[in-house]
Amino acid sequence: MSKTVGEKAQRILDWAARHDVKLSASAHASILDGxxxxxxxxxxxxxxxxxxxxxxxxxxRRPEATEPQRETVAVEGWILGR
Length: 82
Fold this sequence. Notes:
The protein has helices spanning 3-18, 25-32, 41-58, 70-76. By secondary structure, it is mainly alpha-helical. It has one domain. The longest helix is centred in the middle third of the chain and has 18 residues, at 41-58.
């Protein structure tokens, strides 16, 4: 694991601990592995971060949202109405 992946992985693990999120063994391994070298690694990463943002919305711990850019909304959409 590279130093950069290690630092980023630790930030994700720290977030999970602060928010009382219990990670599965496979999610934990994926985080430590930087989501792997396969082509679907980016999809796994995106799915995890989508879930993180949903958890923050439900827990009302998400930082204040900013107004979305029109092109971003048209292409990506927004989770749970921001």
